[in-house]
Amino acid sequence: MKKHIIHLHPVGKEIQVNDQTPLIDVLHEFGIEFPCGGKGTCGKCKVRLLQGEIEATDAHRMKIEQLGLSPEWRLACFSQCTGHITLEIEQFNHLILADESEFDFVPQKGFGVAVDLGTTTVVAQLIDLSSSKVLAVETMLNPQAKFGADLISRIHACLDGNTSEMTRVIRSAIGAMIELMVEKHKVALQKVVLVGNTTMQLIFSNCDVTSLAMYPFYSDNLGMKRFNPEELGWKFQVVEKVQFYPSIGSFVGSDILAGIAATGLHRKEDYTALIDLGTNGEIVIGNKNQIFCTSTAAGPAFEGANISMGMRAVTGAISSFNLDIENIVAHVIGNTSPKGICGSALIDAVAILRRLDKVGLFGEINSGDDHIKLIGKVILTQKDINEFQLAKAAIAAGMTILAYQLSISLSDIQQVYIAGGFGNYINLEHVSDLGMIELPEERICKMGNTALIGAKMFLFSDEKITNEILTKTRHINLEGDPNFQDIYVDRMLL
Ligand code: FES
Q1: Which end of the chain has the smaller Cβ count within 10 Å, N or C?
Q2: 262 to each of 104, 127, 164, 186, 417, how far by Cα in Å?
Q3: Residue 76 Cα: closest atom of ligand 1
């Protein structure tokens, strides 16, 4: 298959992709947001074509025209790569918030780095604090992966005596990412802000995670962690301190704190929800008066774990299924042959099979077989469908219990933001149809990496926003709610 190179300007990144690869498949890894979820209405994903060509379809041209853009612009969410191209990423010139607005910031002197430390991937952006421009971006897979793919195996690796080594590898890897950006741009850093889930924060900080491994899974070491570059083994200077932002609860970290800041949920009049469908399935519901949050065991299935042909949203994963009359059509990330399905495609598959009445209300395969052929060699087994039901029930039950705690009904929630890596591919109609989020599709929107947006906001603010959010937010343990089991079982129905 033909390969092409995409140059990202001004961050100086080069990416090799297969012919016809949609830009959305590669750009979101660099922290680029698709605020309207790729509908072509917000224009925030616009890129300027500096070299090469991107053929625009009629629908794409119409969107460009409607948004009043000149001919050299393209919408990344409508574009595919069919040759070598150089793109100027407009979004890197402004900080775009999760609600599609631009961040109103007070310019500061110097440069800062925002880091989203995920269990699977790490993204770091170098920001000019006088303009909020992104000057450079680095991404990598979390090198702790050799100690286990998910949070639970990382925690167990710590219990086996590997904490110091896991701390060392992640500090050194993030230090190397930052050093690359700083050296290339010859800048002195004012500050570095890190956000991540509670386990990532504790391991980065070389703190004990034992309490997260056993009942009641509670850590009292959730606060802000401050470092000097020298103690992290970093060779560059940081004028102010390096800060790892505080967690909200034992399994609701500063990535969610940053997400709340990025969506402005803590200042909204209307009840709003933020759901991160990553490893942990964190759910937040609240408004300017009070916020409740929790985490659920929803993550593994949506990350492809425990699914027979499941995989993460990387090249080769089927990211979506659609129904074209009676035929199931698949989209494969990176325009290559399918190797398996990721979480968003799992949701699509179950929704479509339910619609075609191949799967019943209880998740049973109506033919009595133990699997259904989807496309090529890709199948969905009875066990996969049951895993999906557990995951979707965890989200739906979590939302119901948080709403109950807030003394509101689910219909009082005016807006649901979906954060997390594979959020870009989620079909909101299917999410709503299956009762995973029991609200109409129009109230749900995809938000991409709200953790990174929030981390960038933290570079421009003192700790006031953080304290405001923490004061308003209460962490709930779902299993501790006497109604959880009944609600959970009920929400397994499709
Ligand atoms: S136009 Fe909104 S994401 Fe592309």
Answers
A1: N
A2: 12, 16, 32, 29, 11
A3: 4
464 backbone φψ class: left, alpha, beta (φ>0; ψ -120 to 50): alpha
CA distances from 427 to 119, 249, 348 (A): 24, 30, 7
Per-residue pLDDT at 447: 84
Tens digit of pLDDT for each residue in 332-371? 888 888 889 988 999 999 999 999 999 999 999 999 999 9
Q: Is the CB of 23 under 6 A from ligand 1?
A: no
Per-residue confidence band for 211, with pLDDT thresholds at 50, 70 and 90:
confident
Tens digit of each residue's pLDDT (9 = 90 or more) over 44-76: 899 999 999 999 999 999 999 999 999 899 999
What distance separates the 2 farthest-apart alpha carbons in the chain?
66
pTM metric for this prediction: 0.91
Question: Is any ligand 1 atom within 6 A of the Cβ of residue 40?
Answer: yes
- Tokens coding 396: 């739906």
CATH number of 3-93: 3.10.20.30
What would the pLDDT profile of 20-29 be if each residue is shown by its tens digit? 999 988 898 8
Residue 486, CA atoms < 13 Å, CB-side half-sphere: 4
Q: Please check the confidence at residue 166 and state whether its pLDDT lies above 70.
A: yes
- 3-93 shares its CATH topology with 111-254: no
Token representation of residue 324? 């074209």
CATH class of 111-254: alpha beta
Rounded distance between C-alpha atoms, residue 481 and residue 458, angstroms: 33
* Ligand 1 site-directed mutation target among 25, 41, 69, 445, most atoms within 8 Å of CB: 41
What residue ranges do the domains of the chain occupy? 3-93, 111-254
CA of 24 to the centre of ligand 1 (A): 10
Compute φ and ψ for 453, nearest 5 degrees. Answer: -60, -45
Amino acid residing at 458 = F
Rounded Cα distance, 280 and 270, in Å? 26
